């Protein structure tokens, strides 16, 4: 091992590897630090020689280097090969730690050697034994400077490796109180019992993040609680049937109605005035049209009467002539031709009338299949307009994107002060034999006591 201190290039390379998040660097990345191949090779060899870096080979046979701090180097300097091996495996386990049984499997060392190595490493304050809430009997070791993970400590719900039920109960009650106070309106003195918010004006139900913030503000505990921890408490309340979780977007429907700004009196008056105006204009135009139509109809009727009279006379004369001259087959042919002409004229009428009809249909919003594509194109922006016009949910505006889209609200508990349906007689196996003065009688009934006691307890709770 070289006794000289590392030169500038070697120090630069060592610092560069140390600065990476996992203190590792691939052989290719070292080229960016020292581009000259011979100099790089010399620096790597020196650092490997003094133990400031270690070679790692992954499953794809890619070589990388892991930097060793100077403090670590000093601490592990006096370790023998077995102790070094045990230490490296403990180090690799990180904050999860490693069980001595797994250590034995990985190192293939005898249990006595492992125990001795662990004793030495613990004495040198390089590793420590950590308890596990999941497996209290297991001997788990991890590096001295690391904090054990939640899987080992159990998170905030464990104190001295024991489930802190009192702490959980206390926090759960606080969470419930917060959700209940938000869900129901505040009771007014001398009334307001069982009052609920109107469905058109729902309260802003809290999210898990909101409850977490309120717990933090209340400074009930010094333990840092995350949103997941608060959700665990809320899940307990959900399972107890005290609260319920609902998606925040569902309530936006009520919100769109609730948040629509009420029209002012001037707006209403303006609308009414416009309506009256349009009605009067329509009436005028209708009366004018009606007048015109009547006039034209009267004119047409007088002229058409004369025409029809003349036509009828001519026709009669013509028919008489034809019956005399033409055979029956010819009349049949003419009838057929007439029919054909009638059908053609009908169809042409339909063709000519088709355009205005179509236009009318379009105006009414009834679509023909050929219009489907265009109507779809029209439909999209209309939908967009509708969407854009909708007011945003207060939950989104208040809590932003930090929520997972769920809010919590309390469930109103129903107390039956003396439920007759729960009376013991309804389920009593001795009901058929029960009668006054008999061996089984209501006077000596043993079931009634519990029922009456429960009823009086409910009454006391209600008074509170
Ligand atoms: S009075 Fe008591 S014993 Fe008689 S039927 Fe009712 S519950 Fe049963």
UniProtKB/TrEMBL annotation:
An annotated GO BP: transcription by RNA polymerase III
SUPFAM superfamilies reported in the protein's UniProt record: Winged helix' DNA-binding domain
Please name the Pfam families in this protein's record.
RNA_pol_Rpc34
Q: What GO CC annotations are associated with the protein?
A: cytoplasm; nucleoplasm; RNA polymerase III complex
Q: Which InterPro entries match?
A: RNA_pol_Rpc34 (IPR007832), RNA_pol_Rpc34-like (IPR016049), WH-like_DNA-bd_sf (IPR036388), WH_DNA-bd_sf (IPR036390)
What's in the keyword line of the UniProt record? DNA-directed RNA polymerase, Nucleus, Transcription
Biased composition of type Acidic residues is found at 258-268
List every stretch annotated Disordered.
Answer: 257-401
Where found in the cell? Answer: Nucleus
Family according to the record: Belongs to the eukaryotic RPC34/RPC39 RNA polymerase subunit family.
Name assigned to this protein: DNA-directed RNA polymerase III subunit RPC6
Q: Which organism is it from?
A: Agaricus bisporus var. burnettii (strain JB137-S8 / ATCC MYA-4627 / FGSC 10392) (White button mushroom)
């Amino acid at each position: 091992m070289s006794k000289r201190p590392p030169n500038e290039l070697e120090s630069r390379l060592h610092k560069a590897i140390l600065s990476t998040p996992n203190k590792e660097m691939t052989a290719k990345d070292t080229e960016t630090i020292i581009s000259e191949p011979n100099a790089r090779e010399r620096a790597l060899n020196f650092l490997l020689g003094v133990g400031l870096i270690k070679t790692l080979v992954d499953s794809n046979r890619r070589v990388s280097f892991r930097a060793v701090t100077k403090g670590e180097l000093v601490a592990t300097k006096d370790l023998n090969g077995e102790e070094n091996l045990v230490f490296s495996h403990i180090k690799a386990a990180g904050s999860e730690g490693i069980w001595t049984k797994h250590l034995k499997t990985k190192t293939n060392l005898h249990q006595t050697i492992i125990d001795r190595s662990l004793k030495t490493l613990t004495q040198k304050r390089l590793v420590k034994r950590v308890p596990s809430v999941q497996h209290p009997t297991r001997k788990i070791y991890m590096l001295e400077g690391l904090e054990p993970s939640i899987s080992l400590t159990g998170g905030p719900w464990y104190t001295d490796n024991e489930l802190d039920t009192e702490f959980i109960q206390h926090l759960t009650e606080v969470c419930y109180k917060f959700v209940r106070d938000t869900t129901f309106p505040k009771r007014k003195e001398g009334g307001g019992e069982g009052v609920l918010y109107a469905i058109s004006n729902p309260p802003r139900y809290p999210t898990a993040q909101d409850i977490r913030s309120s717990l933090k503000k209340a400074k009930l505990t010094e333990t840092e609680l995350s949103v997941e921890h608060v959700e665990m408490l809320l899940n307990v309340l959900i399972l107890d049937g005290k609260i319920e979780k609902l998606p925040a977007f569902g309530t936006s429907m009520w919100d769109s109605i609730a948040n629509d700004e009420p029209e002012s009196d001037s707006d209403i008056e303006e609308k009414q005035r416009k309506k009256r105006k349009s009605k009067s204009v329509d009436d005028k135009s209708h009366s004018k049209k009606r007048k015109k139509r009547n006039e034209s109809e009267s004119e047409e009727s007088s002229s058409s009467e004369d025409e029809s009279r003349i036509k009828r006379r001519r026709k009669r004369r013509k028919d008489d002539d034809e019956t005399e001259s033409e055979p029956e087959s010819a009349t049949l042919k003419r009838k057929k031709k007439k029919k054909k002409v009638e059908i053609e004229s009908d169809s042409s009428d339909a063709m000519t009338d088709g355009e205005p009809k179509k236009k009318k249909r379009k105006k009414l919003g009834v679509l023909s299949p050929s219009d489907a594509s265009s109507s779809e194109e029209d439909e999209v922006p209309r939908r967009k307009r509708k969407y854009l016009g909708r007011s945003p949910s207060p939950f989104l505006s208040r809590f932003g994107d930090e929520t997972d889209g769920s809010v919590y609200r309390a469930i109103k508990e129903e107390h039956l002060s003396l439920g007759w349906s729960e009376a013991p007689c309804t389920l009593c196996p001795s009901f058929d034999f029960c009668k006054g003065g008999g061996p089984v009688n209501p006077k000596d009934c043993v079931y009634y006591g519990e029922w009456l006691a429960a009823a009086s307890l409910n009454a006391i709770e209600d008074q509170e």
